[in-house]
């Protein structure tokens, strides 16, 4: 059987890391596409030359021609601009919306059967626009944010509790922005929910609140340190986790920006929710019960996403 084909649209910091990870994990052959001439070709060659040491079998090719993504099984989109210190994700909307138009058209023409994972910010609005521009079915177009946000939450929790990250689960809902909703009640250490750990005296409510805020600000913390761009290692591993679940039909339960119609009282919006990813794409959106407080936080986050979607429609009236 031929190897799967993975097309990476955008060969910048995240795109290059995605290519390296996909090759090391032997998920398939990799096409790196970018408008910048030389960048995808150079990165593809560099990563291919790590193959003998790493011992992977994968063909890597860099290109500036959309025709090379033909027949891709998975497309991961990072094309666009990242933020710099002082910028919010929302400041990227105008410029990245134009990028989503060209990317959506390229995917529709050359890889209409692909499972598409969008990473470009502002995430929830960009994945919505990408689905509109590409015309692909909504269950085949999804945004990566929740896996990263919950990985950040898990990392901070494992440090606080001094336990393995493997035994920490975390749950983050809502849009990928300042209003994201890390849910303590559904996050656990060794299966014990966080509020119980506070009651047991293993940590304080104040410390937990601090970790939740640090999770919300996780992207900005790294932008502030790097100064020239945003996080790329953890965003890439998060998207690879989603791609692998699709390619291997693992049916992982992962928080993603999925198109939600019906669940959570939504009537057609991309926002971060728990999903099942398998060979069918987004096979299920898991509608969980929220407390009044959690619902209020989720509604606030949904309103922020709706505001960004409305801004996209104002900029490009072809979007409906
Ligand atoms: P960067 O290293 O600048 O790479 C972006 C690449 O996109 C560059 O190589 C550009 O040449 C290329 N590009 C620009 N326009 C086009 C186009 N029209 N077609 C094809 N390629 C194009 O950025 P990065 O890799 O660090 O980040 C990429 C995106 O991911 C940004 O929008 C970030 O804000 C976003 N991001 C999202 C998360 C989430 O959790 C959702 C996390 C981190 C970064």
Distance separating the two termini: 41 Å
Major sheet: arrangement of strands? 3-2-1-4-5-6
Look at the structure and give the CATH class of the largest domain: Alpha Beta
- In total, how many domains does the architecture comprise? 2
- Unique bound compounds: 3-acetylpyridine adenine dinucleotide
Instruction: Let me know the number of strands.
Output: 14
Structural class label: alpha/beta
Oligomer designation: single chain
Q: Fill in the CATH topology of the largest domain.
A: L-2-Hydroxyisocaproate Dehydrogenase, Chain A, domain 2
Q: What is the strand content?
A: 15-25%
Sequence-ordered SSE layout with sheet pairings:
Layout: E1 5-9, H1 13-24, E2 29-33, H2 39-48, H3 51-54, E3 60-63, E4 74-77, H4 93-110, E5 115-118, H5 123-134, E6 141-143, H6 146-161, E7 168-169, E8 172-173, E9 181-182, E10 188-189, E11 192-193, H7 194-199, H8 205-216, H9 218-226, H10 233-247, E12 252-261, E13 267-278, E14 281-285, H11 292-315
Parallel strand pairs: 1-2, 1-4, 2-3, 4-5, 5-6
Antiparallel strand pairs: 7-10, 8-9, 10-11, 12-13, 13-14
Bound molecules: 3-acetylpyridine adenine dinucleotide.
The site of 3-acetylpyridine adenine dinucleotide has 35 residues, from helix 1 and helix 4.
InterPro entries: L-lactate/malate_DH (IPR001557), Lactate/malate_DH_C (IPR022383), Lactate/malate_DH_N (IPR001236), Lactate_DH/Glyco_Ohase_4_C (IPR015955), Malate_DH_type3 (IPR011275), NAD(P)-bd_dom_sf (IPR036291)
Organism: Ketogulonicigenium vulgare (strain WSH-001)
Active site: 176
């Amino acid at each position: 059987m031929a190897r799967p084909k993975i097309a990476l649209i955008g060969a910048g910091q995240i795109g290059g890391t995605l290519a390296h990870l996909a090759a090391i994990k032997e998920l398939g052959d990799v096409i790196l596409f970018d408008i910048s001439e030389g960048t995808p070709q150079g990165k593809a060659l560099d990563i291919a030359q790590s193959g003998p040491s790493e011992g992977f079998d994968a063909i890597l090719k860099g290109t500036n021609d959309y025709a090379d993504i033909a027949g891709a099984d998975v497309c991961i989109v990072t094309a666009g601009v990242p933020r710099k210190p002082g910028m919010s994700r929302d400041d990227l909307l105008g410029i990245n919306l134009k990028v989503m138009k060209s990317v959506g058209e390229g995917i529709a023409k050359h890889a209409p059967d692909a499972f598409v994972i969008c990473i470009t910010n502002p995430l929830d609005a960009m994945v919505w626009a990408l689905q509109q521009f590409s015309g692909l079915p909504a269950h085949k177009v999804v945004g990566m944010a929740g896996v990263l946000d919950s990985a950040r939450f898990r990392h901070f929790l494992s440090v606080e509790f001094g336990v393995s990250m493997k035994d920490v689960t975390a749950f983050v809902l809502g849009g990928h922005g300042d209003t994201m909703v890390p849910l303590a009640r559904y996050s656990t250490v060794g299966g014990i929910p966080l509020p119980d750990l506070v009651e047991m005296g293993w940590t304080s409510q104040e410390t937990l609140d601090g970790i939740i805020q640090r999770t919300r600000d996780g992207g900005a913390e790294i932008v502030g340190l790097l100064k020239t761009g945003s996080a790329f290692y953890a965003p890439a591993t998060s998207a690879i986790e989603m791609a692998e679940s699709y390619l291997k039909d693992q049916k992982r339960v992962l928080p993603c920006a999925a198109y939600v119609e019906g669940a959570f009282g939504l009537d057609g919006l991309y926002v971060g929710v728990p999903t099942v990813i398998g060979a069918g794409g987004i096979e299920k959106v898991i509608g969980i019960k929220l407390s009044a407080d959690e619902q209020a936080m989720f509604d606030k986050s949904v309103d922020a996403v709706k505001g960004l979607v409305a801004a996209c429609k104002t900029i490009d009236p072809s979007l409906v």
